[in-house]
Amino acid sequence: MRLVKPAWVKHEDPINKRRVPIFSVHVHPDGSRVATGGLDAKVRIWATKPILNKAVEETATNKILCTLGMHSGPVLVTRWSHSGKWLASGSDDTVIMIWDLDPNGGGRVFGSDEVNIEGWKALKRLPGHESDVTDLAWAPEDRYLASVGLDSLVIIWSGYNLDPLIKLDGHHGFVKGVTWDPVGQFLATQSDDKSVKVWRTTDWGLEATITKPFEDSPGSTFFRRLSWSPDGAHITASNAMNNNGYVFVAAVIERTQWKSDINLVGHENTIEVASYNPHIFLRNANAAATTSNICSVVALGADDQSVSVWQTKHARPLVVAREVFDRPIMDLAWSWDGLTLYACSSDGTVAVFDFEESELEGIVPHSIQDEYLKKFGFSEQNAEIRAEQQRQKEAFEKAQQAPPPPQAPQPLTNGALETYVPGQQQVTITKDGRRRIKPSLIGHLSSSGSTIIAAPASTVPTSSSIPTASASIPTSSMKVPPSNASPNTSLADAFATAPILPFTHTVDADGDLDMSVPIDAWGPKGESATKVNLKARTLGGDRKREPAGPVRELRAAAGDENAIIVGARVLDVPSVKSSLSCRVEGSDKDADTVEIKNAESVEKPTEINYYRKSETGWLDYLPNAALQVVATVAFVAVALEDGAINFYTNTGRRAMATVILDSPCSHLEASKHFLLAISATGMVHSWNVRTASALFPPVSILPLLSANTSIDSVQLRANGSHLILLSSGIAVSYEPSLMSWTRVSEPRWADGSDSWTGRQRGPSSGRGVLANMEVALTEIRGEEGDTSAIRRPQWWNTALTLGHLESRLAAAQLLDSPTEYKQALLLYAKRLADEGFRTKAEELIKELCGPLYYKPGREDKWQPTVLSMNKRDLLKDVLGIFARSKTLAKLGQDYQEVLKKANEKDDY
Predict the structure, then answer these.
(1) Residue 400: what are its φ and ψ, rounded to 5°?
(2) What is residue 164's three-state secondary structure?
(3) How far is CA 229 from CA 87, 276, 277, 607, in A?
(4) Residue 37: closest CA among 330, 455, 454
């Protein structure tokens, strides 16, 4: 075996040019390239010939082939597809990027002196996770891509069009590892909730949960990367413990019973990653490949900075490499030929273990391995599934209506890289005349009229040239189609093949069955004298929808002069327009619409119409011109020129009494059952329409305004809480329990906090309310308030970051945003650990832990949950962060023991 550690394979801090941690490494299936991801937010693709061949290394100039920089955060995982056509990368920016080779690419990297020998462009951007993406895995034949992250989710994406298929939400902690069964029957994931879960691919249901090997495992590992053996018989999982938590092991989980009776023992610290050699091996090289004669080779990487390689027919490892790295191992990857192992570390280096075939005796060709895997029967049982997937893939290709890209020319590699030629589709004609295409990844998706060059780390792709997958994904708590349903199959398609049964009853516009028949339609003996049913009606339902026409401004709104105090600030009021319209929030594809036509003369009344697509659901006539209208699935609210607000249900009934404001309405917002209105005199009102009650007495916002400060926008949350953004860069909300206005955010956080979300990153629908608020406040302020020229004290950034995160925790509670609360809490804990602020950390621990014993006379106001999340579950994650730090490690470990005993006492 040769050990190679190329110094030129590295990721660097662009400012001080120092090495930064490398979190992931993966080898291309043809062995010509290796991809790495690091703290610098870059994906780098390296040629392997200069690594493995000393002579080529000395002469080659093209060692690095490409630098990809479209992520805005550290790249935590890189994975080549099995075909080698695509490269997937995941980052702590919550996004997965799919990269495709661009034959016309290459050139200088934007903002850098580096030159790309190969051009890899962003094929598709996959949002969907709400936190760091920690691991990725391609299914056999690239049928699916699985991703896991710190949002506790597992997301399955179609391997053909990269659309999201389903979310699996069974874990209750950070998910840090994922692997596929080599026959495609199961998917395994590993999480900080101290479990490995095995999921079926037939219906995406949970097959098994394995917890025993991980009961005493710490939550301190950066990853929990597990691996499935190439014979399909075992899963080797990282971060397992023996002997009540005193022995660090890798747990070997048996396939059928899902039990772990075998452990790989020897590492002196937690194991981060396990990686199986892609080949199976024979115990007796002269015998046939039977179950009793098969073994595997697996590599382990641990926090003790060592790598071990095991062959399962031996009780001891084949190789233990110590003192190769200075910091923990982050990732391992085998080449497809099974003779080269790549390892990366958080010390910023990559090491390569190059074996001779004689050292790994009994290696079996992949062709024999494929025959052996047929014993599971899953591939044959799913022949129909795979045929349907192939038909769907063929239809998808036709739908693109684009010619295939030209074959990539051989790049100029100066001998550093062998050319990779993608496999061509093999088309055969069956007896019934149908085409059968051997699966290969879609080539024409990569075609583009322009070349996308890797952008700097701060660049976030927003161009329409990079397709984005839909973020609307079904979760596993819903009934979902099995894996034999094609990714693009809709419910309409599924029902298209069902037999249509005769049904004589009509259905009205509200979805009710029309069972009514007039009395005179019956004969003297009760027999039906007519076959015609009368259809139920709605007010205005017999009218067809008329086009609203162009919107014209009719006049300025006339305010109620008696309601405006002389000298008081008067907010802007919308003018009277010829027509108003709004879509009904939450209706099916927003198909329902409310339209209002204001009277242009005294002869005609103002008319409101509720449309269900092109049909009129109901109508009404208003006594005054309408200034604003909002609608949800629960109600419709119309603000009139005289200061009145009318409330309707979605069937046209009055939802509650008409309320009268002191002046015309300046702002009107609705969400689910709640309505917020701000009058022209600055009085803020909020109602729960379902209960016909006010959330708080009317309160004035005028004290917060000035000649230079106005209301920029108003937002209303589904829980009734609101957010008002001012032009000064301040966000406020009225808190009834405090009977006071509260500052949710303020400009100084943007000037000094390291956690401020000040730039766009993906669609706003994928962000939380606080992140959207901070982006909006940044846009409102622009360059105003920039304090970069002000001399800042030593602790400026630290103080403002902690203050900002503490404020964000309170704001997340106020605005009912549990995901952002947890994210802010973990960022806050990380900052306390980095700075070593023990007193703040201990106070946070006590706040989350609560009382551990009963004390007579003590008034216990501690609540065990926050935003429906168990505080002690949150504390486990916080203590894990403290335990991994240099300054608060003992504090975190001590309280982990306290919490463990407290939980045992509660269980008892």
Answers:
(1) -70, -30
(2) strand
(3) 23, 6, 8, 69
(4) 330
Neighbours of 147 (CB within 10 A): 25
Phi and psi for 752 in degrees, rounded to 5?
-140, -15
- Domain holding 579, by residue range, is 548-700
- The radius of gyration computed from the CA coordinates of the chain, to the nearest angstrom, equals 32
Q: What percent of the chain has pLDDT over 70?
A: 74
CA distance 44 to 28: 13
Sequence-distant (≥ 6) Cβ neighbours of residue 354 within 8 angstroms: 1, 2, 3, 4, 52, 339, 340
- Host H or E run for residue 321: strand 319-321
Residue 462: DSSP 8-state: -
871 exposed, middle or buried (CB, 10 Å; 0-12, 13-18, 19+)? middle
DSSP state at residue 562: G
With a cut of 70, say whether residue 522 has pLDDT above it. Answer: no
Q: Which of 331, 364, 381 is the last residue of a domain?
A: 381
Model pLDDT, residue 687: 96
The dihedral built from the CA positions of residue 573, 594, 662 and 735, taken in this order, carries a sign that is: negative
Residue 843 and residue 789 share a domain: no
For the chain, give the number of residues: 908
Tokens linked to 719: 């829980």
pLDDT for res 113: 60
d(CA 787, CA 618): 56
Nearest to 231 by CA among 295, 324, 314: 295
Sequence-distant (≥ 6) Cβ neighbours of residue 532 within 8 angstroms:
521
- What's the DSSP call for residue 563? G
Looking at the predicted structure, is the pLDDT value of residue 439 above 50?
no
Is residue 484 in a domain? no
Of 177-181, 255-259, 314-318, 390-394, highest mean pLDDT: 177-181
Instruction: Look up residue 396 and give its amino acid.
Output: F
Name the residue among 448, 466, 450, 451 with its Cα closest to residue 403: 448
Whether residue 843 sits in one domain with residue 737: no
> At residue 301, does pLDDT exceed 80?
yes
- Number of domains comprising the chain: 4
Distance CA 240, CA 249 (A): 5
